[in-house]
Amino acid sequence: MRGREKEYDRRSVQPLVVMAQQPFQLKRPKECDKEWSWVEDIPPHVVFDPLSTVSATYGVAYQTKFRDNENVWSSRPTIFVIDQSGVLRHVASTGRNQDIREEGIFPILDELDAQRKSITALEGKDAERREAVGLVLAPRGPRTGEAIPALVKSLTDEDTRLRSGAAAALLWLGSRAEEAVPALTVALEDNDARVRRFATMALGRVGASAKTAVPRLVRGLTDEDQRVRMETLAALEGIGPDAGAGLQQALKDKDARIRAAAAQALPRFRGQVESSVPVLMEGMKDADAGVRLAAANALRQLPVRQETRKPAVPVIIATLEDKDARVRAAAANAVHWLGPDAREVVPSLIEALRDQAAEVRSPVANALADIGKEAGSAIPALIETLGDKEVYVRASAAWALGLIGLVGEHSKAEIRALVTALKDPDVQVRRASASSLTRIGRPGTDAMAAVQPLIEAMKDHDGGVRALAASALGALGSDAKPAIPVLLGAVKEGDDNVRRAVIKALAAVGPDAEVAVPAFIEALKDRHHDVRRSAAKALGQFGTAAKNAVPALVEALKDENGEVRQETALALKKIDPEAAKKAGLK
Amino acid sequence: MFLSPGRTISTLSLLLLFAAPLSAQDKSVSTADTRKSVRAILAKFDKGDPGWKVRMGSLVSLAKIGPAAGPILVEGLKHESPETREFAAQALVLVSDSSAQPALEQALADPKPGVRLYAILALRMHGPLQRTEEHERILKEDPAFFAVRTMMAAALERADRPNQAEMRKTLASYDLSTMDSARIGELAPDFTLTDFTGRAHRLSEFRGKKTVVLRFILFDY
Is A356 on the interface with B (CB under 8 A)? Predict the structure, then answer.
């Protein structure tokens, strides 16, 4: 709640946070380091529900189980707003594994307050409305439904305030408003945006029983009022599978904006993802570019079985030649979704690397990168693309080459191209190229040709390029021996990342002990623990040849970092077991 | 009151008769009926996660059975279905006694992070963990960084732990018909939970005074 006490106080609100863990489990990484600390100052508005009883009652009991794939043990992140009468007024969930940000709560509270004001405005009309409002504000079980006739009547009142009050009141009745579904459906046509919005929300809250409202509700996706459009999506989700079917229907609507909005919304309907694939494939052939774009973007969000994906291959191939560049880019972005079948798209992607629009060429190169090894036939085209006039296209091509890897017949040309890209005027391209060399360099391969250029790249003014160049040299192992002087010279670099990479690279390249040991001894005092750890490890590799390092290693046994101490102890045992024993190591 | 020596003896033997099954339960010797019902519960997990409601109902049933469920759950730790193993470990947090320790130690090598997590939690119910090589390895290397390593750290470093009998009592008295019963426009279900210092907070205390924003979270309070 940090600093938000005033915001709560001003609204007379008590925050209560429920944690699924046991209090003793709360440990947090201290900044980015691996040193941990126990949390001991948990404010009193945080309460613990480790047995899930409360979250089960509230229907958010994710935490009855530890979820491996998410590596978490928690509840489903949800907030409940309970008013002063103890009545539940609002439930909000991000629908994914994300906490609702605290600042998001205050607009909800203020909106609830505005709804309450709308509802109480009904009271002045007559005794019947007053009684209805009373039931809404202080529900009395099944009797609460008696408020509905008066509210339905007000939904068609000529006074806008009464209409929006009635819609808000029906919203507050939650699932009890089921009888009012026909009236609420009519209210979706109201000329007042507030009335339309409250009616939309009320229908969503009724849930599956409001399915008759779906065809009309779908039109709200293109309402002139942005909040109505947003609430329409939420309401459709509230109605569930019937709404998903309604959206699939809406892809045949005569209004292109409705078709596009429906396509965009479809991935939210998890129950219908399989049947949405053919619908969206049709959408990718729509006459309207906006619909094709929405359909292509929606398609790749559908978590479906591989068999369902395969039929989309020809559609994606055709869409790579769409006349609209945005649609072609969306098709390239969808290639990844094809999974193993993406390899069938490789020839078309090679063509598409020559697309006239840079916004297409870059995702095309990325698509090839995702395919990896199986996209080996694209290497010559990617090499050509390293000369593209757009920076981000060149960078994507450099990345792709690294991810595809060295392919026998092309490997010499590939290395040559990446080496040239090491001198690209743009830093992103140079980084991508160095990074790719890190990935594909192996001792005894054509990548040896990269040694000299990488030595040159160690003079790059960008630390990122230097660090990656050092790693790439390290990947070449003993083939990179000519780089030893340059690497030794970089041991005292100001940039932490560069020093880390350099020390690791040196250890991999394997310089002679007499030149390297002094450098590693120096690095044992580095300010970065990872450098110190790598130095200790590298010294250990020299064995008895690193005898000179023993005093420094004994000193390093007192390092503040546990991993450094551990690595130092190992090194010391290898270099001088006697000294290790003397230092108290077992 | 006067008792003949004969009656005293018969009263004593009567007491012993009753005492026998009671103490047997304490030592987690299970009857055939218990074994059957625990096996039936475990079987619900053989084909994957049956959903949180079934899980909750199963935990409540096992909390009612108590330590007598232990031996069958220990067998469940070796089941071929990862979901069954995980649930067995989760339930052992509630009912394990020291006899489950060797099996729980073995479960620390389970490929499923959830099994490891609950095994640690179950092990520490009976005292702080020893710093064995295996425990240290989990602390440093377990890929489930936030959950499993944190749990191991707690098990090695901290003495505080929940009271197993209290946990069973809370779960055994949970009314399963209240699951998923919060509805917009109706009274919010009441509850009492404690904060870090152990102080109880009851939702209905705020009625008539304040609006309550109740937040269920992942990490960040």
Answer: no
